[in-house]
Amino acid sequence: MLSGKRIILGVTGGIAAYKAAFLLRALQKAGAEVRVTMTPAATRFVGTETFSSLSKHEVAVDVFPEKDSATDSWTQHISWAEWADLFVIAPCTANTLSKIANGAADNMLTSTVLAARCPLFICPTMDGEMFESPAVQKNLETVQEFGYHILEPEEGYLASGLEGKGRLPETNLILEKCNTVLSQYRSNGPLAGKKVVVTAGPTREHIDPVRFISNPSSGKMGFAMAKAAQNMGADVTLIHGPVTIEKPEGITTIEIESAQELFEQVQNHSDANVVIMAAAVSDFTPKETHQQKVKKDKADSSIQLKKTPDILSWLGDHKNDGQILIGFAMETENLLENAKDKLERKNADWIVANSLNDDDSGFASDKNKVHLLSKNDSIQIEGLKSEVARQVLSHIFKNS
C-alpha cells in the first residue's frame, strides 16, 4: 500500500523526534517518497540536515524560508499539500496537537495541515500526565471529529523518568496504521467500486520490422491518471503503448503497440464505468507493412497511409448508460476551440486539453497545464502531472 505513495512526515519538538529518522527510513524501504516538515522546536532535538540527507529533499520549517533556500516560496505549504497522499505527524506534541485542533498556522507544519487534501495521521507523544490531561483529551476528540486519524501512544519509560502512557509507538505499528489509513481512504473514495480503464503512451505503426510512425508520448500523464483513479478507490485497468517509465503497482496493465491493438483492447474493456483516453494514438498507419527491412536503394520515396480507428468516436457512439468518457486533446493552436469541437464530435463528457506551446506542458514533462472542459464547465489546472490528474478527477467527481 505504501509503495509509490508520497508522504509528508511532520516532526514536532519532543524527545521522540530522533525516532522519526528511523520512521523515515522505514517508509522509504516500504517504497514511499517522503518529505519532512519540522516545527522550529523539533530542530532543537534533531537537525534539519539529518532529515534532508535521508529524504533527499529540503526540510520545510518556516512559512517564510531564508532567501538562499532552494524552496523560498511562502506558498510551499500549498504545493506540498497538493503533492501528498498521506500526512503523518510523528511525534506530535501536546502543543502542536492544540494548534491543529484550533486551526493555528504559525509554522510550515501547521500551515500544511490546514492545506492538506490527503488523510492526516497523528501520533500524539508526550509525558503520561500531559496525555491524560483534560485539555489534551479534548483536543484529541476534536481532531478525530475533523476526520483525522490517531494512533494512541504506548505505555512505558518516559523521558521524564516516569512510567506512563506517552511513548511513540514502534515503527512497525506506525507503518501498519499508515496502510490502514490509506486503505480506508481508498475504500471510501469517490471511485470506490468503479471500474476505470485508462489508455496511455504512444502507439507505433510499423513500416517494416525496424521502422515505425509514432510520437514522443512518455505515458506520464496517462499513468498519473491511472494512479489517481486507483487512489480514489477505482479498480483500474491501464492499457499502454511502448513506454520506459515504471508501471504502477496494484494496477492491471495491458501492453499494446499499434492503434489497432489499442482499439481491440478498449473494445474488450468498454464496459467500464469510466474510460480515460489519455493515449497519444497515431492518426495514420501505413497501408502496407513490409515483413522484412526495406533497403534504402529499393525503397519508394513516399509511404501510402490510411487512417487508424477513431477509438474515442467509437466509445462515444457506444457509450453505456451512466458511463463517463474522458478524452484528451493536444493542440498547437486554437486550443479551446479545437477542444470544444472534439468534445462535441466525439460525444465525450470531458476533454482534457493542453497546448504544446506552453512551458512545462506536453510530452515527457513532469508538469502539465491543462484546460478541463465539459459542455457546461471549464477550468484550468496546472502543476505536476500527478497533481493535475488528481485535480481533474476530483473536479469531475466533485470530491477533493
Automatic annotation (TrEMBL):
Going by the entry's taxonomy, the superkingdom of the source organism is recorded as: Bacteria
Q: MF terms per GO, please?
A: FMN binding; metal ion binding; phosphopantothenate--cysteine ligase activity; phosphopantothenoylcysteine decarboxylase activity
Which cofactor names does the annotation list? Mg(2+); FMN
**Quick one: a GO biological-process term for this protein?**
coenzyme A biosynthetic process
Q: Where is this region: Phosphopantothenate--cysteine ligase?
A: 196-400
Coiled coil spans: none
Q: Which HAMAP family match?
A: CoaBC
In this chain the DNA/pantothenate metabolism flavoprotein C-terminal domain maps to 191-397
Q: Which residues form the Flavoprotein domain?
A: 5-178
Biological role:
Catalyzes two steps in the biosynthesis of coenzyme A. In the first step cysteine is conjugated to 4'-phosphopantothenate to form 4-phosphopantothenoylcysteine, in the latter compound is decarboxylated to form 4'-phosphopantotheine.
Q: Which reaction does it catalyse?
A: (R)-4'-phosphopantothenate + L-cysteine + CTP = N-[(R)-4-phosphopantothenoyl]-L-cysteine + CMP + diphosphate + H(+); N-[(R)-4-phosphopantothenoyl]-L-cysteine + H(+) = (R)-4'-phosphopantetheine + CO2
Q: Which UniProt keywords apply?
A: Decarboxylase, Flavoprotein, FMN, Ligase, Lyase, Magnesium, Metal-binding, Multifunctional enzyme
Please verify whether the record's keywords include Flavoprotein: yes
Cofactor comment text: Binds 1 FMN per subunit.
Cross-referenced InterPro entries, in alphabetical order?
Answer: CoaB-like_sf, CoaBC, DNA/pantothenate-metab_flavo_C, Flavin_trans-like, Flavoprotein
Q: Which Pfam families match?
A: DFP, Flavoprotein
The Swiss-Prot or TrEMBL record describes its family as follows: In the N-terminal section; belongs to the HFCD (homo-oligomeric flavin containing Cys decarboxylase) superfamily.
What is the protein name for this chain? Coenzyme A biosynthesis bifunctional protein CoaBC
Listed GO CC annotations: phosphopantothenoylcysteine decarboxylase complex
Q: EC number(s) on record?
A: 4.1.1.36, 6.3.2.5
Which pathway is it part of? Cofactor biosynthesis; coenzyme A biosynthesis; CoA from (R)-pantothenate: step 2/5; Cofactor biosynthesis; coenzyme A biosynthesis; CoA from (R)-pantothenate: step 3/5
Please list where the region (Phosphopantothenoylcysteine decarboxylase) is annotated.
Answer: 1-195
